[in-house]
Amino acid sequence: MAQTTSPPAGSIVMSTVSMLSNPRPIDAQKGTRNILLDANVYCEDHHRQTTLGVVRYFIPDAMINYQFSTEDFTPAFITATITTISETFPNVYLSSDGEFKVSDYAFMGDIIDLTIAHSDISKKKHPIITMTGTVKQCDMHAHTFVIAASQYNAIIHGLAPMSLECYIPEDSKRWPTNRKPKPTVNSAITVTGLLQQIKRTATKSISAFQVQLVSFTYINRSTAFDSTSSTADTSVAHTHAHTLFNYDATPPLETVPVQDNSAAPLNVVSSPDPPTKRSHDEDGDSLNNEKEGKPSAAKKKKKE
User: Fold this and answer.
1) What is the Cα–Cα distance from 12 to 144, expressed in whole angstroms?
2) Torsions phi, psi of 10, nearest 5?
3) Whole-model pTM?
4) Which of 156, 53, 151, 146 is nearest to 100 (CA)?
């Protein structure tokens, strides 16, 4: 995206389901833990239903034995810092088959977290983008505004800019017509939106990342904290103990013993005892007899 001056530093984070491909080391001589991936995300881009980004991923210890497919796509949920891809992005970092050029990509970024997803995951989910930046334009009649920020990118070792064109649908249930946000130019705000479209010029340079606004906050407005205010009643927590999940007490998901290893699928708990069928009368009898101190029907049979 051509800009005369870079916008002030800010923050741009994308969370999305992505189809990853073409794993390759950034520098094979320095090891294979620092890799680049092509990230496909669901968004309209120049008459395509997908847009493409190049992202850096430092493989953590937990993923050190995982092999990304070199022949197919790997579905994953990623959180990454992103910016618009630089028009001078080094070709050496692009896909090694030479099929794509810089103009075929829309963004570059650094993966913060990556979780491999099941192949059945819904892939048609618009990426969520959160940006903290400065308002550059605002059209109150069209209910649109542009926010921009620069962010450091580890691939190019420098700052790179990005602009979001935020829009609010006319029939928005979140913001009725008379309550739509109207940010002032040069104000600092944080927005979150669903990425809908990559707008390009005839020469394929990026003119806008268009998002449908989901949340909007002025970051230079604050409310003084009253230190004398009373704290919340902690006794409430004791009456709702099941709202606090105990991760330490969670049994491991795998290595569960099963009766028939050939038939039972991995990670599925199988009971070694078949389900038993009891008659309603027997259960009722046993319960009533035990309450009255009489032997149950089961115990009578045992005596006999």
Assistant:
1) 19
2) -150, -150
3) 0.72
4) 53
